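Revision sheet: structure tokens.
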Amino acid sequence: MFGEFAIIDTTLREGEQTPGVLFSLHEKRCIVDGLVRVGVGEVELGISSSHHPCVGPLIAHCRSNHPHLKLSLWSRCQEKDIAVAAELRPDLLSLSIPVSDIHLEKRLGKDRGWAMATMCKAMAFARNRGMTVAIGFEDASRSDQRFLTKMAKAAERLGAVRIRLADTVGIASPGEMARLVISLGSCLTKSYLAVHTHNDFGMATANAMAALEAGAQSVDTVVLGLGERTGCARLEEIVGYLCLIKGNTQLQVGQLKTLASYVAGITGRNIAGNRPIVGEDIFTCETGLHLQGLRNAPETYEPFAPEKVCGKRRLLLGPKCGRRAIIAHLVGLDKSLAKNLPEGAVQMVREAAATLRRPLSDLEVRRLLSLPL
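Predicted:
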């Protein structure tokens, strides 16, 4: 069961960490505009740092054009970065601190005591400057769960409105993610849980959905799943599933393809034809059994109608087609064939397609059977 939840899109922060990706201010504005059209309620605009000067103008754009959009910034637990955020005044500052011994000891040369003290000091510094604060636990899926719970309880006492759990190297399974959310959620009374999932084993979207089903109230998404290594949970998949399967009416699934195409264009990415929700070929079929089902009742082999995601159904005539499918296609091209089908027509179509090792176009079929063009 899903309760109330929010999508936090972090394309402008996590997505820009993709090697070779750097958005201009204009591109960031366009991405935000597209996210608003999809219905995303919170956008993480970037990193709070003096090295990221376009955050200020981007906040101004959002305040002027999207006054109801919740704006957040990601920040290290360092006073100089928090001070920058205090000047920018986002709606929410998301402080980040590693919680696994791997990160604390091997990356930073620190220990758990340092993590606790650093988090508490940073939260107090931010709260004293009038900021609404969230805490993000980096590498939470590899942390000691007792220490993670201790950190979460301390953050809640210090006023964290949200606690975000990061599966930083994408090792959690949906079941593990659900158990983590349930376990930590049972220890909190005020702060709500969010998750940030990575796709190293292809489970980022599944883990995000499992977290929502287990009671998390926010999930991070990225357009096209951009991000470090294999990226993060894809906005298209999360929104698509919530709208098309779970009946969400606040999000606009029909806006996804335009936004995905825009981001693909400016980042030099190709959207694979079989990419869920936004791929051009996801409603293309050649297999005989499926063709029969699609002609009789599309819902037999389609989880949702093509027009809902600006797609188009294409039923192809190829070597894998059954006799009924081929005849139905031929009759669709020329109704006279319903009563006067040339002998061997089905076999001719199959052999021609097999020789070419691909489906035939309607023009090729017409020429093959000497039908009127």
